[in-house]
């Protein structure tokens, strides 16, 4: 086989892998959105079988030779980037012994099940031994990957979610955040207190009316229904494949504001997937760059564009119309108070954008310590509660709303959390650059026209796929690698301006 | 590897194959019921990749040895039947050269696409060359399978849909049907003319009300929503897997009667799948016996149980309530006239149970002649129209409502049609046996209680899976192999009684 053939052969192999993964994405969406409960066992078997098939295709015995042969002839820049991503994905898959992969899959599944019950019962004691066993296995994975990639163990885990992400870099970024966030938060809270709380918006807000409003907003956000759907699931997510993006939300009749922003958030994820380079479908270079960039797109839509004064002014009449409501509580001014409310709290997923980074910094500290072997699971509740007090000034009354609130660790995901705040920073940086590059973007958003923004994102982010690192894509788009400055400017302008 | 290990290894292999096929079933359901149109290309790739994977697993190089080794040690009767089915499925998959499998998959897909357009335009000329090429390929497949199975070519095709089905047997059965059907039809039409037509039931019947009525009937039919769903698709079908059965229908606001019986028909299919032996999930012996038995279950629900006088009396008040309608047109008496109407027509899927067999007999004759090489595609319209005139006394005015009306041939399915009428005969035979075995069955149906019927079907049909031939299962359940007598008795009782 010639080296050129080797590359073509790899593209074919990865296309097949992508097709299996695409099928898995449909199976996962179906499980969450439409599957009757009695289908769970059969579905679990289908997913397990397809996962093994995808893994077998990826780790086939001839891959090392194919990757080596493909690299020995000239390829164009996209092909080079594709080959680089193929190698990265393959190395992550082969760095860990197959036996360990299977053990950890079972242990994650089991720990997650225990967590569901334990969280509801605020029973950390029953979770702790399972979670410690899982952590021990994750540390073995981290050690295997660290050896294979010549990285620090935590970095080796982080690299899977955020390719090229390194703790040393995050330490600097999060340190810069910490240098101003506590003071900024204090100022915001003071100022907010002087302004008073938003007026309550009493429900009920019928699900059908919320759905109709969501449909209207999807149109505004240029969500392409020929290539996507909106459905309901318990945990909102974005799934499917780039040409068939499935987003979900959950409606509460007592409050329309969370589901509405939830739909906008998922639409940001969906637009990223949808805008990935169409000629590289099914190839690793055609995939999203990483979780930081993915979160930047959802937060750019949710936090930057759609919590802007301009968009809220556009939104308020739609809300009044959707629910047939009126009065002070449904003015743009009150909606702004709702959507710009800052309140240190216990729960990450309920946090505003000022306090959210503190939740992430806590988790980042703790998971680094756990992976380093410096923190035992048994000592997690104390460390968590002390950290919450230090970082957010609140102390959880129990573990259910403390160190047991997130699925990530019981699910085996360590090294994921920092990408949320890296995404928030990237969102601010990208939105500032977009507005500077095209002054029509923000006024258009105020008219409900997202075409200019979307055009800029397509060109500068989405269509890059994985051709370049997160920092390379950000530098091309904004003139600089990931930094804190734009995020700080954004928070000051919105909350202290 | 010991022979016992070989059998265990085969069970494991077939479980994996079933998981891939289960995933394919979800992908197909999704395509028909919920997929946005822009997802079609990616879905096609996913389905193609998984189909190849399933085929590769089934035709792997070690299968012949495994099947041989597994047969050399004692197995219990279910295991023996399972091994028998494994061999059958494997022989069908390996009898045809891989290159031919791929060529015919492409040609079927292409011909089906041409058919969609050509049918709409009544343009048989543009379909004919494609269909002839496809027929040539199907004849090659038939020849390959005939050699491998030592069967007549048509039988070799039929065997895939109806294991053990043989044209010689069908000739006898259909000959018996023809010996009384024309005369019976004449008598029925005469009698019907003297009674007058049913009163029209003017719409509109809102989709929501039809859906609510369908939900009510699903409950009556013991459809288990923990293990199934009802959705909408252009062509109604039953899909999914036994623990997660997905049925679909299509609502027309001008007429509720077709969708209602459509849902009942698919529920019969669904109950069969759902009742397959649960300890043999994922094994060939745990699958439905064949298409004749499958159709017998849908027709037993639709034609035998739910067009009975007893059920129509139960149904009529539900219809009146569902649509808030009253008057003569919505009495049980009028609903009976609607559901027992006999009318020779052009279209098979619109046909009543008296004229339906004639549609099938025509197709059976023609496809046998085509496979034998005695009928060219170019001569199909003439043969079709002559056959319609002979068998049904009507002559199609065009090919769209003539020989182009069905998807089967353009989709590459030859040997499928006879199973519809074999199913109708089996349904009559099984229902008669069920009523004789448990006299509570029919009165219970009149009360909307399907538990006695379902219990009998579970025990005598569903739980048999593929353990035994169609005739063995029928003989155990009814005392005799498939025959015409019960069907004849049923038609005479309902239409001349």
Automatic annotation (TrEMBL), chains A, B:
Listed cofactors: Zn(2+)
Active site: 266
Keyword entries, A-Z: Carboxypeptidase, Hydrolase, Metal-binding, Metalloprotease, Protease, Zinc
Entry's Gene Ontology molecular function annotations: metal ion binding; metallocarboxypeptidase activity
One Pfam family this sequence matches: Peptidase_M32
EC id: 3.4.17.19
Stored PROSITE patterns: PEPTIDASE_M32
Cofactor, free-text remark: Binds 1 zinc ion per subunit.
Broad enzyme group: hydrolase
GO terms for biological process, alphabetical: proteolysis
SUPFAM superfamilies: Metalloproteases ('zincins'), catalytic domain
InterPro entries per record: Peptidase_M32_Taq
Catalytic reaction list: Release of a C-terminal amino acid with broad specificity, except for -Pro
Residues that coordinate or bind Zn(2+): 265, 269, 295
Organism domain of life: Bacteria
Family assignment from sequence similarity: Belongs to the peptidase M32 family.
Purpose of the protein: Broad specificity carboxypetidase that releases amino acids sequentially from the C-terminus, including neutral, aromatic, polar and basic residues.
Protein name: Metal-dependent carboxypeptidase
Organism: Oleomonas cavernae
